Amino acid sequence: MSSPVRHSLLQLAETPSDTRLTYSAWYRHGVALLSAQGIEHAAQEALWILEAALGIPRLAIYVYPEREMSRSQWDAAMTWLTRRAAGEPLQYVLGIQEFCGRDFRVAPGVFIPRPETELVLQELVAHALPEPLWLADVCTGSGCIAVMMAIVYPEARVYATDCSPRALEIARDNAVRFGVDQRLTFALGDLLEPFRQMGLEGRLSAITANPPYIPTDELLTLPKDVREFEPRQALDGGADGLAVSRRLLKQALTFLRPGGMLVLEIGEGQMNQLCQELEAFPDYALCGIRRDPSGIERVLCMQRIG
Q: What predicted TM-score, i.e. pTM, was given to this entire model?
């Protein structure tokens, strides 16, 4: 957030000296500030920020609207509100994002999980996997897919990589949060390369990935909270958005065992191109395409048959 913008927002967030520091007064102030900055769901977001910042149940705000807060509580909640008013994603402000019905920790510098990424897991569990189950997730980000694989497949060994140390820090925290850290191995590095040192060639039952898939020229058209706050390396998929996916197609053949699955999330309009390029890989068989609720072909599943 630039200094002039932050200063302007702090002025807007200032509380008149005669204001009673009640839940309802903060809420009205919060809705007004977010609305003034063009936040679409200002009323709902102000409520979420207040309950999270104070660590109180939402019901308490409804039942005791005139309960007074301390000045430190008011200011702390207002700091969170100012961050959101400046355009920072709500998930970063709150520090969590729901995924598969669980609240995963997220933080600035780490890609925020999207609902459509749950389709990767839905596609994976629709197929029988070769045993013993050794599963891997690359571009793991917050670790949401890797952690959920460890939960869904309690007998599996799970591995995950990312090129961001910050992302791996958050992913490890999430593994501990959900009690699967003893069965999850994280490694820093590019795509599948860290697995060479682990001797995983030809041993993986499945590889999942939500790789960067936004074409470079389209990055500037993304919403402000994505464009200015989420890590570019988690978004930029090269000229046509498929640069990372192409590399994964080649690398995965080295690590998948026969019958193993590669499950990729891709961007809108990329399915036909990737399926055409798949014809150059005779050791893959296309075994699943999954659409998101908007009808977009979002997940591609391939099986190693060679």
A: 0.90
Is 178 noted as a catalytic residue in this protein? Answer: no
Residue in 211, 212, 229, 255 annotated catalytic: 211
The DSSP-derived string for the chain is --HHHHHHHHHHHPPPTT---BHHHHHHHHHHHHHHTT-TTHHHHHHHHHHHHHT--HHHHHH-TTPBPPHHHHHHHHHHHHHHHTT--HHHHHTEEEETTEEEE--TTSPPP-GGGHHHHHHHHTS--PSS-EEEEES-TTSHHHHHHHHH-TT-EEEEEES-HHHHHHHHHHHHHTT-GGGEEEEESSTTGGGGTTT-TTTEEEEEE----B-GGGGGGS-HHHHTTS-GGGTB--TTS-HHHHHHHHHHHHHEEEEEEEEEE--TT-HHHHHHHHTT-TTEEEEEEEE-TTS-EEEEEEEE--
Q: Is 229 a catalytic residue?
A: no
Does residue 119 sit in the same domain as residue 73?
Answer: no
The yes-or-no answer on residue 211 being catalytic is: yes
Give the tens place of pLDDT for each residue, 255-303. 999 999 999 999 999 999 999 999 999 999 999 999 999 999 999 999 9
**Domain boundaries, position 39:** 4-87
Catalytic residue among 104, 174, 210, 255: 210
- 13 and 67 fall within a common domain: yes
